[in-house]
Write a structure and sequence with these properties.
The protein is an alpha/beta fold and about 290 residues long. The chain folds into 3 domains: about 60 residues, OB fold (Dihydrolipoamide Acetyltransferase, E2P), CATH 2.40.50.140; about 150 residues, 3-Layer(aba) Sandwich (Rossmann fold); about 60 residues, Probable gtpase engc, domain 3 (Ribonucleotide Reductase Protein R1, domain 1), CATH 1.10.40. Helices cover about 25% and strands about 20% of the residues. The protein is built from 9 helices and 13 strands. The strands form 3 sheets. The protein has a 6-stranded mixed sheet, sandwiched between helices. Strands 1-2-3-5-4 form a 5-stranded mixed beta barrel. α2 crosses α9. The protein is globular and about 70 Å long. It starts with a strand and ends with a helix. It binds guanosine-5'-triphosphate, magnesium ion (MG) and zinc ion.
């Protein structure tokens, strides 16, 4: 039975693409609904092709290697977390996305977009994420700076752009892949743009494969997390694991915490721990309400 990846979904119709690039219009069998499963873009499926004008059928959903719920997209391999100087960067959103990537084993890349507006952001990201296993690429869709290097980092991987509205994701996607999407004019009044991207689609261009999605700024940590887990997604904390006065230590405000000491010595950026503490407070609150 042929296998493919769902590149598009409109209503109950899906488009699957096989390894040769051929496309097939498919519908999901009712059994998926009965099993509480919904095929989403990025899913790898086994299918029966349709005959003539008839659609074919999705027969089987293959296991997902990663999944985002909002927006629904499966099997992202590399998440490009896009920030830019204007609108004001949402560092906490970037942090959330990084944690989610580490949790699901998705490779993450930080993109400092609109570098034509200044290079301070890329420098800051490099400083704060040097030990976080998230490389930083400074790019400008306007001048073309850094696009080749970013393309190289994306090649051979199913990529997805994420980041708040107005950071330039659609513009960047067009610049990287050569696929023209309609881009929204940034709203000057509130300087944070409006949501212009609605579809979820896997696009191919210039040898790259990128999911075009909207709404990643709404992403909450998928599923619940034990507060003890969060620290495991901070690579720079790991070498201090087990050396704090308390065991386990959540590296929050416990006395004798080696992570806090490393921050004081300038070995770990204070901003990273500050954002970690903010997320930890959220994770704790959600955890405490888990039986409500
Ligand atoms: N100066 C500068 N502006 C850019 C660049 N890339 C995009 N922009 C502008 O930033 C604004 C927002 O770009 P979009 O690509 O629509 O942003 P988006 O992230 O797709 O926004 P949503 O679809 O709302 O999530 C537009 O006015 C673009 O012209 C760039 O490299 N430099
Ligand atoms: Mg967009
Ligand atoms: Zn500690």
């Amino acid at each position: 039975m042929p296998e493919g990846i769902l590149i598009r979904g409109i209503g109950s119709f899906y488009t699957a693409q096989d390894a040769d690039g051929a496309e097939f219009i498919l519908r999901a069998k009712k059994k998926f609904r009965h099993q509480g499963q919904t095929p989403i873009v990025g899913d790898r499926v086994r299918f029966t092709p349709g005959m003539g004008e008839e659609e074919g059928w999705i027969e089987e959903l293959l296991p997902r290697r990663s999944v985002f719920v909002r927006p629904p997209v499966a099997n992202v391999e590399t998440l490009l977390i896009v920030l830019c100087p204007e609108p004001e960067p949402d560092f906490l959103l970037a942090e959330r996305l990084l944690v989610e990537c580490r949790r699901q084993g998705i490779r993450s890349v930080l993109v400092a977009a609109k570098s034509d507006l200044g290079d301070g952001l890329a420098e800051r990201l490099r400083r704060e994420y040097a030990l976080a296993e998230a490389p930083v690429y400074a790019v400008s869709a306007r001048t073309g700076e850094g696009l080749d290097a970013l393309r190289e980092a994306m090649r051979g991987s199913l990529c997805c752009l994420a980041g708040q509205s107005g950071v330039g994701k659609s513009t960047l996607l067009t610049a990287l892949t050569g696929i023209d999407l309609e881009t929204g004019e940034i709203s000057r009044k509130i300087a944070r743009g409006k949501n212009t991207t609605r579809r979820a689609e896997l696009l191919s261009g210039n040898g790259l494969r990128v999911f075009d999605t909207a709404g990643f700024s709404l992403l909450a940590l998928t599923g619940r997390m034990e507060p003890e887990q969060l620290r495991l997604y901070y690579p720079e904390f790991l070498e201090h694991e087990g050396t704090c006065r308390f065991d386990p230590c959540l590296h929050d405000r416990e006395p004798g915490c080696s992570v806090t000491a490393a921050v004081r010595e300038g070995l770990i950026p204070a901003a990273r721990q500050a954002r970690y503490r903010q997320l930890l407070a959220e994770v704790r609150e959600a955890w405490d309400r888990r039986y409500d």
